[in-house]
Amino acid sequence: MIQLTNRQARQFLLLKHGLLGEYRFTGKQGVLDFVRQVGCIQYDPIDVCGKNAELVLQSRIQGFTKSILDELLYQDRLLVDYPDKIMAIISARDWPYFERYREAARQHANRYPEMEALTEQVRTHIQHHGAISSDGLKLDGNFSWQSAIHWSSGNNATRSVLEQMYSTGELIIHHKIGTRKYYDFAEKYIHPDLLNAPEPLKDELEHQKWRILRRIGAVGLLWNRASDAWLNIWGLKAKQRSEVFRQLLDEARIVAVAVEQLKDMLYCRAEDLPLIEAVLQNPAPKRRCELIAPLDNLIWDRKLISELFGFDYIWEIYTPPSKRKFGYYVLPLLYGESFIGRAEIIAERKTGRLVVKNIWYENGIKPTKPLQRAVDHCFQNFALFNGCETISIE
Question: Strands, DSSP E only, in 152-215?
């Protein structure tokens, strides 16, 4: 067991995420390295000042632009849109590990024999016309369903069939225009060695161990208790989760970490021990100021962030306006080893203006000159990321 002070635990998390000190990740290769480290980045289509996945990357990747992510997804095909922690972006090389979910979708589809004729219409259309969106073809038939592993669909038959074919792995997302998804045959873009690979971990417990280890790596430190960090891991009840943790500890793949004043034990991956050792040497890394995505890997477990950082964050986008404490799309503001506040920012791309509607500093935070310079520098970088030439602070 390793013992850390609260500050050391925070340093470890931030250094692992590349949010403290000099940038650890740079350019296109940096994006790939970060995605492989965390397993997946949560995707959300809402774009107020960048989509969630883009916001995650802009805070960590030196020189990141939105076009880099598009290239990796839709030109290089080294990343792929795929449900992991809900809607997500994963490394294409992880494709085989999700075969059990595609097989579940195929079995689910067998309950709807009327779908086969509609599926054949989609195949024929794609063969003749290429990538298709749900408004690019009207199917002859009326059909709606709830996907086994993906987003629920409404009463649009084409959308239902496309999502079913996506769930089984026959289709992948070819590209997006705004929030609209265009689908094409997976076999055209995913290497045959990955597409046809057998599932590496057929035993259910071994698969759950892989996924939990992956989620611990996605956050850095996690506990064996209910958490949003475990979302979309099928069949993971408390009993199964405890058995997974027990086995991972016995196999020395995770390490117990006791943090001062925390009642629950935390765990990190064994491969992160060198970073723990570095933190124990009491480093004084350079401070950076970054805006953090609302669904950022670092804050997947909001209770853990509250315990370690004393920062309570709720994404109020789905909260009725009259009940919001802050605003519609508000991002946590990180400075050095602390969350110092939050900011509501809108990118007005038609006018090329980044509007900072409001900044709420945490209690006890004094906007000193060094802090203000760091925040201003952060907003300048954020404006550049959003293609805005001017900044307006309201």
Answer: 171-177, 180-185
